[in-house]
Write a structure and sequence with these properties.
This protein is an alpha+beta fold. 16% of the residues lie in helices and 36% in strands. Strands 1-24-23-22 form a four-stranded antiparallel β-sheet, with no helix packed on it. The chain has a four-stranded antiparallel β-sheet with strand order 2-3-4-5, with no helix packed on it. A hairpin with a 2-residue loop joins strand 4 and strand 5. It is globular, with a radius of gyration of 22 Å.
Length: 387
């Protein structure tokens, strides 16, 4: 009887498998895939040991202004007044605990992914020497905002052709102390911010990496091309180089803007334990790096698994929406501090993203680390004396 039942089982199983596989195959052949993924070679992720050893230090962060703002991507301060840009296109000011909208680069309606291109999405933000705000808006470009009046002065528009191409996804910026030069990233020449997951999964190197805007001559120069999702940027304390996070490749490049190496580039940190988003100075002379996603080792890293299997990526995106795929990205939160030479000094983790999920930036001010996130409805604050 057992051989008969196992035969029945085999036949039933095969019939089921075929009845599922054939339509699925038909669907996947016929359906268009929004992306044309490229195979990427990533090294095995670094082991999470030593200073990278998992902990729960990020869970000590307090949630400030919860449900009063959404997606505070980048955070700056002028004195004790905080400024950030939110998912609904606003630039807001937080003074004495009070939230006030000071500007909006785009126009409504705002709220959904589909509204972003007209609404605008302020990403990187910096304070210039005259205490004005420099903002990188993903859809509108670079502008300067008066923090008192909210007046917006466009600097580099995404409609302007730069070396024959428009900017598609303006992401982050860093400003020299004298305010003369702004270095900024354009993450892709194909995808916009609302499709950032397509950009990560496609793995193409169409980012026009690093651009330089001269506020005096109004000239824009392309300094570097061919990066896979160039993201956060930070000038070194001596202003001799700019660090650029290459998100898809889990690494940081260094481009020299002055000195003997001027115009040259090299690798600053390779094979990081996560996908780096924004990078900011730390008070120790090093850098804070926020990870948009983590590459667990030991553990399973979906990104690494898919990196050399474009056909699986195609299947996924033929069948599932961006929002659905996002649900499979583990909510592991990680912030690392690098030394001035790029070695790891310490790391703060929240392995299940309980307190702060998807940290986009860690901004240090007065002994605290302010944590931005492209999706959280609050700003996290971690007391550096007590972690």
């Amino acid at each position: 009887g057992s051989t008969y039942s196992s035969k029945v089982f085999r036949v039933t199983f095969l019939t089921l498998a075929v009845s599922v596989a054939v339509p699925l195959l038909g669907v996947t052949i016929l359906l268009d895939c929004p992306i044309d993924p490229q195979p990427i070679s990533l090294k095995e992720p670094p082991l999470l040991t030593g200073v990278l050893e998992p902990n729960t230090k990020l869970r000590k962060a307090e949630r400030l202004w919860e449900n009063q703002l959404v997606g505070p991507e980048s955070i700056v301060n002028i004195g004790d007044v905080l400024f950030t840009g939110t998912a609904d296109g606003k630039i807001i000011k937080i003074e004495d605990g009070e939230i006030k909208t000071i500007a909006r680069i785009g126009h409504g309606p705002c709220g959904g992914f589909e509204d972003e291109p007209t609404c605008g999405r302020p990403l990187g933000m910096r304070v210039g020497p005259n205490n004005t705000l420099f903002v990188a808006d993903a859809y509108y470009g670079l502008c300067e905002v008066d923090p008192d009046t909210g007046e917006i002065k466009p600097l580099v528009s995404t409609k302007t052709l730069i070396e024959g191409q428009k900017l598609s996804f303006v992401n982050d910026l860093t400003v020299t102390r004298d305010g003369r030069k702004i270095y900024f990233t354009d993450s892709s020449s194909k995808w916009q911010r609302k499709d950032y997951l397509f950009l990560v999964m496609e793995g193409t190197d169409d980012g026009r990496h690093l651009l330089e805007y001269d506020t005096v001559t109004k000239e824009v120069k392309v300094l570097m091309v061919g990066l896979r999702f160039p993201n956060g940027v930070q000038l070194s304390p001596a202003e001799d180089f700019v660090l650029v996070q290459e998100t898809t490749m889990a690494r940081i490049r260094r481009y020299y803007v002055s000195g003997l190496m001027k115009g040259g580039a090299d690798m600053f940190v390779e094979n990081m334990p996560g996908l780096p988003d924004n990078i900011r100075l730390s008070s120790s002379g090093g850098y804070w790096v926020a990870m948009a996603a983590v590459r667990p080792n030991p553990g399973f890293s979906l990104l690494d698994f898919l990196s050399e299997k474009p056909w699986i990526k195609k299947m996924i995106f033929k069948l599932l929406s961006l929002q659905t795929v996002m649900k499979f990205v583990p909510k592991y939160s990680l912030v690392v501090e690098l030394s001035e030479t790029g070695s790891y000094k310490r790391s703060f983790h929240d392995p299940s993203g309980v307190t702060v999920a998807y940290v986009s930036e860690a901004h240090e001010h007065n002994g605290h680390l302010y944590l931005g996130s492209f999706s959280s409805p609050f700003i996290g604050r971690l007391d550096l004396q007590h972690v």
